[in-house]
Amino acid sequence: MAQPLSPQALSEIDRQIVAAWAADCAERVLPLFEAEAPDDDRARDAIARTRSFARGELTTAGEIRRRFVAGRAASAARSPAGAAAARAAAQAAGVAHMGAHALGAAAYSVKAVGLARPDDSDAGIEEIRWQLARLTPAAAEALRGLPLLGEDTAGPLGPGLLATGTLGDAIRRIQAGL
Q1: How far apart are CA 124 and CA 101, in angstroms?
Q2: How far is CA 82 from the centre of its chain?
Q3: Cβ atoms of residues 158 and 150 within 8 Å
Q4: What is the structure's pLDDT at 64?
Q5: In the chain, what are the domain boundaries?
Q6: How much is the pTM?
Q7: What is the mean pLDDT of the chain?
Q8: Predicted local distance difference test score (pLDDT) of residue 72
């Protein structure tokens, strides 16, 4: 099998492995989105498709074309927490394209939980603990193969949106916990 062009891509097998974990992370916060947009199934569909990709039932090429659908669902949310939950689903769907999006799904899930529980200063840390506990040994090994946040500019772990604020803090904590 050919090596990925970017260290953030991961091999297809590793993307399938981390896709299941990314779907778990996004699904955990999905109720925050669905409570605000009960008739919008884009985020739920993205998570289901991520699970199908993880099982090898969908192709990378097909999922690359669909990966932005759930992200557009964020506009249907009425709160920042709901929008973050939709973005977690979108990041999970992006794993078919690039494995580093798994950390994006986890980070947006942490952000959604923190926004939904603003009076609980431990909410994000608790979510990260849950996420790390959900990792299979194979998924943890695959995620350890990713560059640390900010070390490689050719993907989601570069200097963009995921590297700042709550998202960046969450990814750094997750990577430290691997």
Answers
A1: 19
A2: 15
A3: yes
A4: 72
A5: 12-177
A6: 0.94
A7: 93
A8: 86
